[in-house]
Write a structure and sequence with these properties.
This protein is an alpha+beta fold. It folds into 2 domains: 30 residues; 108 residues. It contains 5 helices and 4 strands, in the order αααααββββ. It has a 4-stranded antiparallel sheet. A hairpin with a 3-residue loop joins β2 and β3. α3 packs antiparallel against α4. The N and C termini lie far apart (70 Å). The mean pLDDT is 87.
Length: 168
């Protein structure tokens, strides 16, 4: 570096240094928060970065409809098809009448569903976020029911392919 270069150097700009410092601090805080959210979602049983919350909400709405004895609405959620009545032949293998029996007289809790609580969920299947989500629901206070929600089409299945080990 020559003496001419030193003489022509730009003037010191403290605002530029402040901007750089603030950007660095902002990035560090963002990375730290992202890490905390990632781990918190997993530890609390709601998937990495809480990615399973939407599926838990869907299952919660399903059980709300069962409690309200709105079996047609619950059936629509089960198949993720709000217009299922327009094409009932598509669901002839598992019609609404059989669905209603399964969730009333042949219910997994052997009693009318009067209360529920979504406890936890786990990703299931292959890939980073799996092909589905298993949602654990405590029904009528003491019965555990495991619902499977397919990530691709958001349809539900009961019973889930696996049961989760946890203490409510």
């Amino acid at each position: 570096m020559s003496l001419t270069d030193l003489m022509n150097a730009p003037a010191y700009d403290p605002a530029r240094d402040d901007r750089r410092r603030n950007i660095f601090i902002g990035l560090a805080v963002t990375v730290l928060l992202l890490g905390i959210l990632t781990l918190a979602g997993y530890v609390l049983g709601h998937g990495w970065l809480f990615t399973n919350l939407g599926y838990e909400h869907r299952v919660n709405n399903f059980f709300d409809d069962l409690e309200a004895k709105d079996y047609a609405k619950a059936y629509a959620l089960y198949y993720n098809d709000p217009d299922w009545q327009q094409h009932p032949a598509r669901y002839s293998d598992y019609p609404l009448s059989r669905f209603t029996e399964d969730w009333t007289t042949d219910s997994p809790v052997k009693a009318p569903i009067t209360s529920h609580h979504v406890d936890i969920s786990k990703t299931d299947g292959s890939g980073n976020f799996g092909t589905g989500v298993i949602v654990a629901v405590r029904v009528n206070g003491d019965h555990k029911v495991f619902m499977y929600v397919n990530r691709a089409d958001k349809t539900m299945t009961w019973p889930a392919p696996h049961e989760l080990e946890y203490n409510p």
